[in-house]
Batch of 2 targets.
Target 1
Amino acid sequence: MRQSIDSFKEAFKDADACNVFFNNLRTKVFLSQEGPESQKICAELCGKDTHWKKTITESEASRQSSVNYAAGGLAHEEVAVSKTVAYAEQDEYLFKAHEFCNLPKFVSIVSAFGAHADVLSYTDTVTEAV
């Protein structure tokens, strides 16, 4: 059994064939990944989701400003203040590559066929034979 994507690439000896193999798998279970290349591929295999990113821009412009020492502040004859709010679609990975590094014991990321990837953890008490 192979546990890293790098070991699969060595077995296939062709990166494209390895990528086709992973893309054809319906359900993928990801454990902790050490190599940055493996982490990146795992993030890509889990997919992306579209989010709305909000950007706020505020600006202030004034003409003929001066310092008013008696009033203790700035004096402006004309002031224009504007605020712009914009929304843009942005694709983000469901799981960032670094999230595949050092997953705790009994925790995996599962990408089931036809569904978004999700984190599954086994939290029942594990008993050892004495």
Target 2
Amino acid sequence: MKNVLTLNSISPVINDIFDSSYNVAADVKNPEGIILRSFKMHDYDLPETVLAVARAGAGVNNIPVDAYAEKGVVVFNTPGANANDNISLGATGGVAENENKEEGALTGQKTLVKAPKKQGNNVVVETAVSNGKDTHHILYTIYPNGEVDMRVAFNNSSEETRRVGITMQFAPGFEGMLYYAKGPRSNYIDRQRGSLLGWYRTSVDKMFEELSTPQTMGDRQGLRELTLRNNGKGLQLNMKVEGQLAFSLSHYDDQQFNYDVFYGGKHPYDLTRSEQVFAHFDFWQRGIGNHSCGGDSCLPQFKTPTGEHVVTMRFTPKTFEPKARFCADIVKNIKPMGIK
């Protein structure tokens, strides 16, 4: 029997995850694992039996990660695990009031389709998000070496959907970036002819664009590979893509763009920068168009395809010496090249 201690009230859905070989309770002795939400662990006397600590929620600011790492204790966080069932559905983006607004993001019911189970040496988990019309299936495969495959099957029922993709948040510090996609400037499904496919090196801050009225920005089409780097802690996260995907990264939450540019009056200096990194990984964004004669349209070939669209992302964490040059072995003598 494995003992798991809960330091906060945790959703009963965990009973579907832990089988009878686990004893999960708030009063267990000699726990091998701990699950918490907001409990502050900096002054907590950690039992010597603990092997792993998991926070049901985003971030680990209430956990002394470095101190636990020295003891060999693994710390996890689970963005969304502490969220309500009614969540913002980044997987569809939503139809805005007009093309200048992020307002109108669809919401959907998040469900655990299949509880985590062992498959060979791996662990697989299947979840789904549905808004009643479109359901998006996400299959996670977790490998013993720490790699995670995320297979996303998007379903879209309207060619007027503004965005079909997912949103993520990365921990503060992952500022350095190397990517293989179209660049070096932002480009979109109907604004990419002048952008070349190749390796580009930049930072999250440099992806911000000084628009007079800030909106979602920084899109790069044709993503094949992305590496984020935390030089301060010697951490690196590599992502490889199978399927069609575009991406953007920002220190500004899209919720700040929820206003009408004609009457809202926001400017770049009105925004609040976060240390957190907000990411979009999109199968498709509907074409920008040209707003000719006041219309809100784009050419038919740039409207959002309906049906199911599958993309797989593989995330690989690594460590490195903080003084090492950023992926010098990759970028040396590589130049951007165009494709037809």
